[in-house]
Amino acid sequence: MSQNPMGILADRVDRIACGKCGQILDVSELDSFSVINCPHCGTEQKVPAVLGAFLLAEQMGAGGMGAVYRAVDQALGRFVAIKVMKQEMGADRELVESFLREARAAAALNHPNIVQIYSCGQEKGQPYIVMELVGGGRLDQMMEDGKKVEEVRLLQIALDVAEGLKAANGANLVHGDIKPANILFDQNGTAKVVDFGLAQFVNRQQEQGGIWGTPYYISPERARGGKADHRSDIYSLGATMYHALTGLPPFDGKTATDVVVARLKAPPVKIQDLVPTLQPQTAALIERMMASDPVLRYPTSASLLADMKTALTAAKEANSPSGRAKKHQKRDWGHWIVGGMAGLIMLILIVVLLRMAGKTESRPVGASTNQVAAVTNAAPGGEATNVAPEAAAGEVQFFNPEADAALAQTLGAMDADKPLPTAEALQALAAKVPRNSARMMWLQVLQAVPYGLAGQAEQADQGLRAAAASPITQKRGHVLYMPQNLALLLIGDMKADRFAREAADWPAWYGDLSAGLQGFKNMQQGDLTGAAAEFDRYLTSSNSLPAWAFALRPAAQVWRGKLDGWEAERKRLVELAASGDVDGARAGAEKAQAGAPVFTKGAWATVSAAIKKVEQQRAEAAAAEAEAKRQVVVREEVARVAEFMGTNTQYTAATKDYRKLNPLLLKLKDEFQTPEGRAQVDLMREHLDRLESLKALLIKEMGASPYRGTGAEAGWEAVGANVLGVRISQAGRVTRLQPWDQLSPRFMVRLVRHYIEQSGRSAAEQADLNLSLALFCHYNAPIADEPAGKYVKLAQDQDAASAAKARRLLPDVAPE
Length: 816
Description:
Layout: E1 2-3, E2 9-10, E3 15-17, E4 24-26, E5 35-37, E6 44-46, E7 49-51, E8 54-62, E9 66-73, E10 78-85, H1 93-107, E11 117-123, E12 126-131, H2 139-142, H3 151-170, E13 183-185, E14 191-193, H4 199-207, H5 220-223, H6 230-246, H7 256-265, H8 271-274, H9 280-289, H10 301-319, H11 321-331, H12 333-356, H13 369-376, E15 388-389, E16 396-397, H14 401-412, H15 420-430, H16 438-453, H17 457-469, H18 481-491, H19 496-503, H20 508-524, H21 528-540, H22 553-578, H23 582-594, H24 601-655, H25 661-671, H26 675-704, E17 707-708, E18 716-721, E19 725-730, E20 733-739, H27 745-756, H28 763-780, H29 788-798, H30 802-809
Antiparallel strand pairs: 1-2, 3-4, 5-6, 7-8, 8-9, 9-10, 10-12, 11-12, 13-14, 15-16, 17-18, 18-19, 19-20
Helix pairs in contact: 3-6, 3-10, 6-9, 9-10, 10-11, 15-16, 16-17, 16-18, 16-20, 17-18, 18-20, 20-21, 21-22, 22-23, 22-24, 23-24, 24-26, 25-26, 26-28, 27-28, 28-29, 28-30
């Protein structure tokens, strides 16, 4: 047994194999984790230690509570990380039980951004957790010596951590100790959160005054002694991000108390004051994450993730070549203002000259200069685009009033259940407009709705992709991109945040229409919840012009009602399954699915999941009941074996005729039902075989090497033995045959010890015979006058592999 500097107890290793040449090295005199050089090949070796089933190869880190080791799980043959707490940490039984319970709950998490927990337990009074070995470093190592982490990389790390926290929150688990040292990286640079299941243990120790590190990242409510929840994790992640970006913790002080007081007195220094180049989205994100009042933080991990992704996109764009160019342009704002004023003056002069010349504009009253450009600029393919502004609102239109009315009538007449005629009507309209025109793109986008509702997804997608691929010669931001951007959004080739940024400068009806079309798209893709939200936005807008953009409202209203009906039926069936009526829920789901479109399959899948859960609970309950009954049988069978041995071994031990019990035990085994009961019979038969082997040893060895008595037994020799007994010789002649049943246990022990110690036997052979002798002493106690534990220890000293055998043969005698 050795104790390393961290106070962790582990068993020493006597011999190791060189990792290069394979030579066996004697390290019995060396401390665990000391370094030696192989005398055969010179390769440096580190002496491991043994903790239960784990071979501790090297220490990876340490703290106030214990240490983390790179280890080998000898049972499964894989490398793992094992965190071992100091022995004093395990003194509180209630605390350890809580620790193991938390760790087991965390072990159920299986997520790419959470370090997987394989197992947990307690060894030599020390609680431990066995985890996935992650070898890409830690965030705190990136931050050493006040180093700052680049904004984009930090946001990528934070996104990974937030994804892990979201998964944990979904399982009702809170980490409670998010900090840079608990954020690890795999070989691909993916961030993983470690120590789920340990934080509650740490917090309890802190409450008892056992441990209190400098709380740079602890939330205000936790600092006040309150309970941590998922919002506390969000705060700690925000504080970690603050430290990583600025190189300074959000609060500091000479002691932990000073840090807590600073946190409770005032907010941290504005992060943009420390890092002026930081993007506003990132600064706002961290400020909200670190709000003192938990209510003001992000309510869920999902909402946090959405803003993180927006901040990451902004940071990437700002750090791209085009983003840096924009920054440069902003620095030259004075030049732009001067140029813009000159251009404005020139425009005014042109208008005055035109009026003086008696020329008039062929554009409606209220149209802006930019909108005139939209009317007159050539469309793709050289066509003069039919775009006119709305006189009332000053907004662009893509169809003249007659075409607007015709299109609105076509869309408004669509039968929600039989939409194919509308698709064909739109196809006919498209045949009358020029290719690659804005009107063609709009008709291609609108056709996706009836084709999709009719189940012709390929046809719908074909139209959207055609619109998305149409060539446009105008600069980004021109109104001609309105139908194309919408097509790109619907086929998934444009992200929602970019679509929203570009759409911000276009008419309000465009956002309403995009919501309606996205509602139909979401519905056809099975996202019924997303479809309902988009439909609500489309249906509740106060806008109504242009008429064609809102002509799909009747169809959207019909499908919105169907969504409500499906959701109500889904909830009813889930509740029916939860109440135990599995057959009724299954029949209802089959009926509902048979009468509903294929894209509602996901809704009924939740009913199937609820049914499966109930069935699984029933199966688990039945299995638990069956196991309980089986365990009763196991206990009965094991008790029968104990009773049998207790009744028969006293006589057998006296006669030393151990073979007689074997047939009786085999008969008993045939009557048993459980593997445990039969295994107990086999164990007792092995006991008897080992006891019989001691007689065989004496019969074999005594003839070749007589035993000469000493002390009171001097003057005679045991010159041989057979199945009947031992032949005794005095004065050179055999005087008698001493039957086995007349040999005292003490004399038997003396004879066996004498022949075990004869030269020529390996240490492993001697150890095995000493285990058999330990069994003999166990069955003949107290007559044998020798404790069985004495020979168990002797066997373990001779061969370390004997420890496992001893625990199996004599669990009440062999030490753990």
